[in-house]
Write a structure and sequence with these properties.
2 copies of one chain form a homodimer. The first copy, chain A, has about 120 residues and is α+β, with helices and mostly antiparallel strands. Chain A has a single domain, classed as HIT-like (HIT family, subunit A). Chain A contains 2 helices and 5 strands; from the N terminus they run βββαββα. A 5-stranded antiparallel sheet of chain A has the order 1-2-3-5-4, with helices on one face. Chain A is globular, with a radius of gyration of 14 Å. The two termini of chain A are about 25 Å apart. The interface between A and B is medium-sized, with 29 and 30 residues. β4 of chain A pairs antiparallel with β4 of chain B.
Chain lengths: ~120, ~120
Amino acid sequence: MKKLFENSYIYIEKESSEIPWVKIFTKQNCKELSDCNETTRMVLFDTILTVEKCMLEFYNPKKINIALFGNYLPKLHVHVMARFENDSYFPEPMWGKKQRDGKPNLPDFNDFQKLLTKRLKK
Amino acid sequence: MKKLFENSYIYIEKESSEIPWVKIFTKQNCKELSDCNETTRMVLFDTILTVEKCMLEFYNPKKINIALFGNYLPKLHVHVMARFENDSYFPEPMWGKKQRDGKPNLPDFNDFQKLLTKRLKK
């Protein structure tokens, strides 16, 4: 999987989906949030916030969804998703019951990635 | 809904479920995580961590799940759940497809609440 971004503590991958959806992984090998060291956790929290703010600015979604599960893959990672009223699952979570054949008409993810990378490098 | 705990910034409610599941709400009225002020956000992050650590210690679950959705109720709140291999949905999220009639045999939630309150008051 191609990384969208990385620094010393975290890296970001894109999830294949009809909605803008990224996964932030910690480089420190942790199962739970409380397993990682404070610096990693602070960088992770800051990164979640930056991804959220970029998604809000770039996509103007109805809502941001954030989730930490790791039941299949017990390696700490955070899902950050931009949700739209016409996506296939809204208002259910992306893991819930499908509501419709959604087709959110969205700007190019590559442009989002450029904005996100710029903000994360600050 | 009876509050399990509250301070100046957040309050905690119990979700009715077969698993230990609490919801942390911010008192500041926010839709998204990035809408709330830094103090509220820091208290919220600290509270998530404390709930997670108490659940790990008290219930010894297979995994902690954390989620911020708010698609139905656009008021910032965080779900923190202790997951077990024999709960009804594992390894799916609690919003996913039911896997079995789960009956995790768990200690009394009231005792968990006592431990949690003690830790949060520190």
